[in-house]
User: Fold these one by one.
Assistant:
Number 1:
Amino acid sequence: MDVLTLSRIQFAVATMFHFLFVPLTIGLALIVAIMETYWVRTGNEIYKKMAKFWGKLFLINFAIGIVTGLTLEFQFGTNWSRYSTYVGDIFGSLLAIEATVAFFLESTFIAVWFFGWNKISKKLHCVSIWIVALASIMSAYWIIAANAWMQHPVGYELRNGRAELVDFLAVVTQRFAVYEFVHVLGGCFMVGGFFVMGISAWHLLKEQNTDFFGRSFKIASIFSTVAAFLVIGLGHMNASILYDTQPAKLAAMEAHWETGKSVPMYLLTWPDEKNSTNYFQTLKVPGMLSLLATNNITAELKGLKEWAPEDRPPVLVSFLTFRLMVGLGMVMMGISLFAVVMRERIREFPWFLKICVYAIPLPYLANELGWVLAEMGRQPWIVYGLMKTRDAVSIIPSSYVLVTLIGFIFVYGLLGAVDFYLLFKIARRGPDFTGGLKLEKKTNTATGGSHA
Amino acid sequence: MLETTWFILWGLLWAIYLASDGFDFGLGTLLPFLGRSEGDRKLIVNSMGPFWDGNEVWLVTAGGVTFAAFPRTYATMFSAMYIPLMLLLFALIFRGVAFEFRAKVDSARWRRIWDGCLFVGSAAPAVLLGVFFANLFAGIPIDAQGVLQGGLIDFLHPYALLGGVLFLTLFIVHGALWLAIMVEGDLLERALHVARTFWPASIITVVLFLLTSTYRTDLFTNYLNHPWLFLILVFAVAAFIMTRVFLARRSLWPAFTASALAIGSTALFGVVGMFPNTLISSINPMYNVTAFNSASSALTLKIMLGIALAVLPVVIGYQGWVYYRFGRKLKLEELEDGHSY
């Protein structure tokens, strides 16, 4: 394989793996901060216990998020050096600002929080988790602004063979960035909320620590519901913004080939990329696509045939990731709403608690699908309309990339396995368990978390 | 002028990074040697606990600033030094998770695995960063497009390896001094012994490195043209000597501070010697990447300068507070509360 293909695979591996950890960091930090605030304000020790238990899971996840994030910063230079030269003026600045204003805070104060339990005052301790939570959100903003600029470049001029900044405010406040940010943030909160709901549900089903997990569930259910509204609301706005910014992606998401007015939506479709058509399309909702994209049922939408085949994004991938993501979003909205409405008597619905346990992976999946859609749907461009992905890759031997790609798959596989093992074990043990897990096969039942 | 300012800031960021993360690289390297018992190892790891992550962000910032202020430098540096930087990255990955994972399972074997990662993940970056900077000083075989014309072996000349040894010895002294601040009793004495033993080694390596630099690099040209710049070197030498003086008096914080200043000013000495080059081509000086031919637009440089000058002092402020608040003697009993590595 060539450097381009290998680098794209490597970037996909590194980014998608990184984004298994980022959303939980962002979502759970805020939940832990809320729990600790309850403790500081009410003095009720159970909230302290909650902050500690969920905080422990948070930290394991956080560590991998940090180290895999390092990879991304390296990769723009190592594998995408021509891209870096071309956009450093804008994209590089946003990354540098992220490190300076957000990442420092996050990394410094998470240590204050972890090591500070018995060393600093209650209030200061609580402030430090809030700093972590808010810094992680700020951090997301700068990164999303950088990504949004790749999706829809603004505030630049082409000079000296590169994109140079002319309007900083335009770059950091553009609509694309704001919508994308809130949508992604909602997705992150969803991961945090479903994580806490799912683990709490598991313990509630086992009837252990019911007070502890009942309260955790309640907080998480409210959190998830707010997140669901953010995600879906902004998701719709994100899609409609594509009408102005990335019509090819919009067309690919819907497998819409022929330009026309009052474009209908077909509930059942399967795209046929080779022949620039759909194998079948049925269950027509007249004018729906035009309505969704523009709020105008008669609006004209460009079809994929407007672009030469090599300038179209991969249609099947865009189409499938979009539908799956939206479908998952609806399912999660339903789960959140049921959870929040029934939160006071959730233990009367064991079938629902079971669903919550199995729903933990859903927001993760939806997040990944969303990113695949965002990034694949932008192809063949790395910076939409400005630079093609194939022109962005470094001039390096493909053997280098192959070796590091194998290295990443191996190392990340290992880290993922350890992470899953630790989270799984610690989550099962529950809040009364402190110290390190025992490796022995037969675990001591006294530490097994069965003393509710 | 903007480019020059950014070049100096760039050098300062590297200096701060090496002076801060340097001690935890050194301490990680010392872990298997000073950590004779489980308890010792726990103390050693936790003596870096609240600091290492914040220190590492200086690397992210130095990298990010290279990207923002000198995009072509960033692009050329990272693609031309693909394999060395990827090795550094993998080492940092293992090291980062090793801290977090080591105490999560109560098993000697589990801890041994992650302590092993911590050792490799600390010693390897120390050497790799030394090799990296020596290559920056000596130049690497890049062509007019910034593409590497050569192989891995071109990075591993004796001068580069000397750079690796230099960083390793400097960091070992630095790490031992930090450990001395954080522990008591026997471990403290052994830490001081390491610092005393490695201090002469680091001095000899520094001198050797400087001497080799005179014919292997053009670092001294800027200094000969502007002799007042030699003050940086004088400052570095003074800091090295003061490290030993304070060490003899068992003034630990001053000794550690002096060591940090020695490392920082040594790095700065090298970077200033490179000016205006940010990457030197060993094929043809025409191909050098410089602060001027790789800089971002004036607007970006101005905005970034404003942000850096406004925010970095605050960062130094709160990180300083963390050092002040958490840089106190550890007791093993207190580490058993579950809030430690």
Note: Chain B touches chain A through 70 residues (CB under 8 Å).
Number 2:
Amino acid sequence: MSAIQIIPLTWYVTLSAILFGLGVLGVLFRRNAIIILMCIELMLNAVNLLLVAFSAHHSDPNAQVFVFFIMAVAAAEVAVGLAILMVIYRNSKSTDIDILNKLKG
Amino acid sequence: MGHITITQILFGVLSFVAIISGVLMIFTKNPIYSVLYLIITFFAIAGHYILLNAQFLAVVHVIVYAGAIMVLFLFVIMMLNLNKDTEPHKPAWIQIAAVTAGGIMMVTLVGALKGADQMKLAQPNDANIGLVNNLGKVLFNDFLVPFELSSVLFLAAMVGAVMLSKKNIH
């Protein structure tokens, strides 16, 4: 017996909302840019989980292909984001995002 | 549904693990512990994928997230030698404001989606849609061009990452 018959979709929606909210909370709460990138990953995963839950409940494989593409984009994003962080660290010797206010008008 | 089935227990345990380790990831001071807690969250989400009969995505999720992305994070944190002492702190009032704002947003999201109970099954579900056989057919028939384009994206990301981390670009 799989989860599709037993567990209501609302539970998955609630779980995804909580995980997404945790990601937002982390972005607001932390100052370390690496942790902020990790919280963005958590938000992406909350959305992925919701897509998979809807896909399973509607027997639609297209949503799972979408999740696959989201994972690909997330991997590329992390690679470039961490490279940018390395450059920032090399220049300012810190990963604190509050240092990065040079673009302020 | 009067009794609790094993699937519901599994769902509860996996959700509990995911949420608790997510909270610990945010509130731990040491960045390396944050990465480890996020890996636990990702494994719990992979368990959810298996519960939802999305075996292919569960495997890809473990390989890509726990295997590649989190290793990259861990590698960068260790290379920059970040630890508890170098961790920057926000002032207390900003932390309180962040927790309040994030908590309010979470409660609002959960509360707004709570009433959406009318989401019923569109059709009798098919347990095979998450398997490699079925997903591969969809991926290489309907999504062939986006799939090839994602390889171009990876190439661009790779070149960009190498160029960014190179020293002394003139």
Note: The domain at 8-94 of chain A is CATH 1.10.287.3510 (Helix Hairpins).
Number 3:
Amino acid sequence: MIAKDICERVLQEAVSTGADYAELFAENTVQHSINMLDKKVDSINDAVIAGASIRLYKGLRSVMASTVDTSEAGLLRCARKAADALGEGTAEIAISLRERLYGDIHPVRIVPSTAPNSEKLVFLKDAYFAAQEYSDAIRQVNGTFLDVDHRILIATSEGLYAQDRQIRTRLTIQAVAEHNGETQTGTCGPGRRMGLEVFTDVVDPKETGIEAARQAVTMSKAGYCPAGVMPVAIGNAFGGVIFHEACGHSLEASSVAYGTSEFTGKLGQQIANPKVTAIDDGTIPGAWGSINIDDEGTPARKNVLIEKGVLKTYMIDKFNARRMGLPATGNSRRQSYAYTPTSRMTNTYIATGTDTEEEIFGSMEFGLYAKAMGGGSVNPATGEFNFAVNEGYLVRNGKICEPVRGASLVGKGSDVIRNIDMVSSNLELAQGMCGSSSGSIPTSVGEPLIRVSSITVGGR
Amino acid sequence: MDYNSFKNAVAAAAKAQGIADYELYYEASEDCSISTFRHEINQFSSSLDGGVCFRCIVDGKMGYASTEALGEAEAVSLVSRAADNARTLESEDQVFLGQGGQTYASCPHTCPEMAPTDLIRKVALEGDALLYAADPMVADGSEAQVVSQKMSVAIMNSNGLDLSYESGSHIFIASSVLYDGTELSTDYSIACGDLNTMDIAATVAKSVAKAKAKMGADVAPTGAYPVVFSPEAMGSLLSTFSGVFNAERVRRGLSRMGGKEGQVVASPMVTLVDDPFYKDSIMPLPFDAEGTPTYKKNVIENGVLKTLLYDLKTAAAVGKKTTGNAAKHNYAAPVGIMPFTMYLAPGELTEEELLQKAGNGVYITSLGGLHAGANPISGDFSLQSSGFMIENGVKTKAVKSFTVAGNWYNLLQQITALSDEVKLPGFPGKTAFASPAVLVEGLTVAGK
């Protein structure tokens, strides 16, 4: 993308005022999405995102400058701006780069960015019409086929010169069902760090459409969820968003390093129920949140965050690693060159346990089964989180009963991970986009079916 | 290659590829941001962003493509990608490009220039010092952030439209973290305007006071009682559900406002305004994303839905006129429909009188998880909330970790009073939402 000798000259300019670390990040991303609405191809979004950023550290200060001008002159100007912002000083390091090749553990057979629209439309239409034709109650379907070809280059004053190419493909169907004048929605959005082959080899597009429509039709006939504190069984796959919100964000160095996480200073302590082991793993082949190297050039890793309830590690980027005196963990991520990267999740999940589905439901006299979850959010400082239940059922005397709509779950992260007291074994991952200070990035969440012994259910 | 040379390269490429109807939309922004940690500058960032979006009509369909890489080869590829995308489309809607030669209102207020880095640094450190001085409980993690930004937009098309516009803003954000030895409480406050005249001390004081007031909060009791939404809370709810007034969403069955123009959709005290030149807007816009002149309008007037928001395509499809609300989420996005500054008009009660009218209930100052816990299609919401109890007409103890649930379409009818002061809360942008404090009857609160 940018030749090694140019990177060397740019980094040398960047460290000219005394930075002790400098990084050049360059990006060229082709992003393409096709949208269908009212049974027709309605719009296509087709974008090239290209630019670079220079980051400098001096002790515990950091500076970033970014630009869309990736000519050598443009990059040198950007480096100068960053160097000037750092202050007055003289160069203390000499730049010499060595190319490093990281293996790609996410092979791609059909590169979507070079495939014609017609090939993608086959999958989109299969999914779209499967949803549309699922039931007469389906009033509208909104379908999107997204593919991203993200090429990055990272050169640092430590000598690293590395590149990665991250290809992702995703199909999202949202179905709207109507029953007695009320509308409800259902959504299904499988994606992988793979090419178009994901929709012939791994995911059946028709099932995606059917799942979205089934959820919408089920919910259109549901009554409102009652409000109160009760036990909740949370379904596998996207249910893992509970860990992502209630605990994951609070284990990111961007909060921990500043003391604004309820888990600051808790390494080695029992913070969760002994049934809970939680992992962030950026190395799962083909998984939506996987990376070969993070956006600072650190290789992705499998990090056990919590083992049998004990806090083992945080997720740490290079800048916050300095403040914390701990090594970086391969979690530094950014939406694009225009965002300052920070510690983020990759594929984060609760590991399998030994409880069975029968035991979990059998233990519930009255409660909620949150079969499908929506998104959520958290304030890491206080641990207060929320997330939405897209498909819920009441549980009475161990039996799954009628569907209920409009529920959300709220609580405090450090309480809820103590209350996860049953964990089954049907672990699956699900895909989402996670928004935070370094932008919107692809992450997986996951878990087997779990039980939370007591949590506030927002209903009416 | 700069934008002007690129513009010419694109025009040449369009001509060479036989494309007669096209438009080039350009958006660029420059920003500089400094934030503090423990009395020092912790992060500095400066960025130059920008890109162009090309759209063209081929066989009656509008194809789009965009890029940030401005070069000769990219100009040719941009045009052919957009044309290729147009050929894939199936929508039968008639599409339009805006006409040149229209007249535009002039903006009633001016926006500040980029602030010098030294001033940004000085204000950030000053804000940091004020934060720590404001209260002995202010703890590390508290942060002052100062942002100076400049935005420019230009639209040029084959119908003779050739418009450009620039605006800028300075923003100060005081984030407080308070710690009393056992409990952390956080909040923030934002000021916009000109750094030279901005009231930094008042913004810091407000941020700290908000975080302090929340300390020792209890969980609210479950029940159905009157709810007062603060301007911040109602602004965020309005932001989440503003799409119900989008005529395109209505036409697609994604809003229940279909066929309701001219009918009562809200309580008679509700008037909802959309104003491109709102006094506190950081980006007052004289033209929309299609080059149509913008103007102030009542969307709801005394409870009656006066108009939905339209762009050229949607207006033509249903036999109406555009309301000048064509908008893009970012330069690369296709043209959609958005409000400018949308706000609920003020009522007649002071905030104290509003609380008295509520009697016993809950005052919600902040809502969380709006992207997940609120469904803009069904109108259902169940949202994480924090705020205060209202007892005998006055604000009493702080409450948190409860939810408020209801339905937006019903809520519009359930509004029984509004306070007399509209505030523009939240993070400023092209689109912003403002509100007075609003009293709503009949919502459910779930807590302990």
Note: Chain A is about 20% helix and 40% strand.
Number 4:
Amino acid sequence: MSPAARNIALAIAILALATSAFFLQRSQVYLLSLCCVYVMATMGLNLTMGYAGQMSLGQAAFFGIGAYIDAILTTKLGVSFWVVIPIAAVACFFVGLALGFPALRVQHHYLAFATLGFNVLVYLVMRNEEALTGGTFGISNVPRPYLFTWSLDSERAYFWFTLAALVIVAILMRLLLRSPWGRAFAALRDNPIRAESLGINITAYTLLAFAIGAAYGGVGGVFYAGLVQYVEPSTFYFTTSLMMLLAVILGGSGRFFGPVIGTVIVILLPEVLRSSSSPALQFMQKWYLVAFGVALVVLMVWLPGGLLSIGDRRARKAAA
Amino acid sequence: MNRTLQGLVMAAAMAAASLAVAQPIKIFGLVELSGTGAVSGTNFNDGVKLAVKEINASGGILGRQVDYQASDTQSQAPIAKALAQKAVDQGAYVVMGPVFSGSILVSMPETRKAEVTNFTGGEAASITQQGNPYIFRTSFTQAAAMPKVARYLHDTVKAKSVAIIFVNNDFGKGGSDAMVKALEPYGIKVAANISTDPGQVDFSSAVVKAKQSNADALFVYSNEEESARCLRELKKQGYDKPIVGETTLTSQKVIELAGDAANGAIAHVGLSADAPQPEVQKFSAAFQKEYHYKGDHNSLKGYSAMYFVKVMTERIGKVDTKALAAALHGATMTVKDNPGVLLDVSFDQNGDLDRVSYMTKVVDGKQAIIATLPAAHTK
Amino acid sequence: MAEFLQLVVSGIATGAIYAVAALGFTLMWQAAGVINFAQGEFVMLPAFGMLMCIGVGMPLWLAFLVTCVAAALVLGYAFKRGIADPLIHHGVIPLVIATLGVSIAAKSFVRSGYSAMAQQFPSPFPEGVFHVAGVTVSFADAGTLVIAGAIVLSLQAFLNRTVTGRAMQAVAQNTESARVLGIDVSRMVLYVFVINALLACVAALLITPIYLAKFDMGETIGTKAFFAAIIGGFNQTRGALLGGVLIGVMENVVGYYLSPAYKEGVALVLFLLVILFRPEGILGRREERKV
């Protein structure tokens, strides 16, 4: 497919998705919004992991920081949602820099461990600093924003809003990756030594990738808080980071649409399996998580590069 | 074209109307069947299921069968919200759950918007403080239970100071906050307020701290497993002051898990599977037979809530969720007329309920009732 | 002072259990480059295996032996052949995801197939406590410590003194040269997997009486073992013991003297400091950068 044709197909797909909100039940629309929100965060993680080659187990911490910034600023200080988005993005960017600067010295699996530790610390602060974060009770009644005078209170309106936001951040990501600066990431991941000899400053680039990934997590968090209208610490425990990691790998890390596919599977598949009412699938209500776990193992053994690597596998087979 | 459409709408409306008579009453459960709340959620859900089974066997509600569908919130608030929307959109008459306070806070705006009656197992004070006319509790609030414990500590234990060990989640923190407030009017000092983590294994530091505080009594407020571990550590370190709790501390599961260490523990219990009432005993036996494990207060919550629905629906004489919610406010149901409600109960204007409660003590590995506390409105 | 000692003693006993689970982590990492995110579930499954054996009337010791055999086959052999072998050439991440899948499947399997409720578990040690210098020690604490210590020492001896043990270390340090030297790499890796499964059984036997058998018990154990392994040094057998004990003691001491709400956090700060300033762990050796 030519790039132009691909863009048109993509635009049609997005429009179809937006229109589908007319035909779906409210709870299904809500779940679609939930997917969009998580995709923002996993897209950021994909930049860190898939393009810059750094395994992070702390994306839920940035997601949580974004969500709490929104919840605190909108409920306690009455700040507008629109102001919160850049605040959260910038805050997570700098927290990402602060964490990444020492952590990236150690690379590989150690970065994974350091980010995991950071995630648990963030969780503890959310849980214990009651005056600021509401402690274990969290913060409820987080307001949804207005678009000019149009209230985004309904599930459908908020879904369109989130989808539009997702498309915008995805385009930004695309532009970033297409820039010479973004190409350096890939060069880095594929052959760090060669990249270094070409004059790419490895540390600076990975650090930036990590911080931008964190900012994406933060923006996702802001939309999450608006969607669920409630934040509590346990949502942002490191198990959520593992779930996000899962989504990226499952879809295919280092592929632009990898996190999209992966997140849709991780969020929607359990719901589909669970709510299926056909008798053949009834037993799934009890066993769906077992099936999900086993499917994950089988998929990894079969396609270690994620679902989107299926094309490569075919190509390899054909060549062989 | 237009005419066909009209015809279709008419046909659909007629079909709907004729179906409405025979259609079962839809009740949806949003329950924690996996994740951290799995035990509470499973108990609550099985309680509802048992009541539904009995109700259907005896002819249903107003001659209509009850169709109960439970979905798993995975103990996650965002999922609970989605499931609440789904329940509402599928025409729920009543929504049961969630049990977790965090989840109900997210899901109840949905049932409120749709004006659907919603029972919860949650005990956090804030649930009924938002002026939501559709939310009803199935047990005491912590704000109602703790003063009873405080009074017991003052009158019977004659404690001047108390140490508190609580689990730092919404349940434990809410209880600890309510307890500190309840102790104030009695002039009882909180010598130490010790936070523990959900899933904590080693309670030695908490117990050492409680011992060092030299308080006259210890108040333990945690989930089942953590309570059991805490009791064991208390026994190991030879803690000799009275150990008092609320609901969980003397529950069957804790006694089973803690073994000998549970002996002597005292707790205020709003709903107890071991209450001396014949109806409650009958329920416990039936529950054991149906699910092969012993129900706890959460199963009683689910079971009695389902009977509240039956009793009140028959009282108003129609299946109308809005009218049901209106009728529940200020309603009183007695066991004499409705055995399924298990204990005499009355609801106030906020959706909080009131009924008798018990002080229980673990004696020889069994929960024994040492005092019956009357409902607040009768005293 | 007495309370300080009490905290340290209890912390050491708890830490020793983390250490046994952590030991498996370090072994797997060394020999096969596997980060096993299902390590906690590897402890949980034998616990339920033993419960089931006890349920059909076996005494605890027999239940333990039967479970050990089953674990060696399933969590050792089958895990290696079915999951680790096909994935090992694709780097760390796919394998991490696969073990996450194993973890999810194992947890939900036990929950749906057995029970969501916590179950009591018999202790291999006699009930009761004794007092030393004002410190209360239970027989279970003392027994746990002795067993954990014995396991670490004998494993250390096995790795350093026996031919097989040295061959396993050679594989861990440099797989290629080990192969050139004629060591049967695949077999050595299999040994590691089986030892890991057996260690998990021992950890289950020690921890479940205190922790109670529950489908999600592995979450805490796995996390703590993971931290212990890193703090102690991912490539040192003794490190796991040190890491586990450090976490157990720190949590108690911090919980008592500083803030119970942040006690988990302090172990983590320790963890972060170790990662940032001594990424090879307190007792670990520095790894060469692999390109």
Note: The CA atoms of residues 105 and 143 of chain C lie 33 Å apart.
